[in-house]
Specification:
Elements (H helix, E strand, L loop, with lengths): L3 E4 L2 E4 L4 E7 L8 E7 L6 E7 L4 E3 L7 E6 L4 E6 L8 E7 L11 E6 L1
Parallel strand pairs: 2-10
Antiparallel strand pairs: 1-3, 3-8, 4-5, 4-9, 5-6, 7-8, 9-10
């Protein structure tokens, strides 16, 4: 089991940027892929971005061209650089392996984009 702690969320205006961080309690090389997920109020959690051990990346259509996922295997961390933020990006953001492990969800970090 791995503990995951997200940070870096906050309140930002439309068009702004944020960088999220996720620290893992064990080597992220233990997982084939890591991902960022988000859950908006009243909606199901969805995957936003995925990065493999080989650093291949995939993105949800809604964030392509605006978000960038990266990883630091030495720091056991993954990151999500978010730019050109929109109100619909407002959500709690989580990291987890991909596919996600049910017992490893962290507290998440709130991102609020205001118009």
């Amino acid at each position: 089991q791995v503990q995951l702690v997200e940070s870096g969320g906050g309140f930002v205006q439309v068009g702004g940027s944020l960088r999220l961080s996720c620290a893992a309690s064990k080597s992220i090389l233990s997982f084939n892929s890591m991902g960022w997920y988000r859950q908006a109020p009243g909606k199901q959690r969805e995957v936003v971005a995925v990065i493999s051990v080989a650093e291949e990346t995939r993105y949800a259509d809604s964030v392509k061209g605006r978000f960038t996922i990266s990883r630091d295997n030495v720091q056991n961390s993954i990151y999500l650089q978010m730019s050109k933020l929109k109100p619909e990006d407002t959500a709690v953001y989580y990291c987890n392996s991909w596919p996600a492990m049910d017992n490893s969800w962290g507290p998440g970090t709130q991102v609020t984009v205001s118009s």
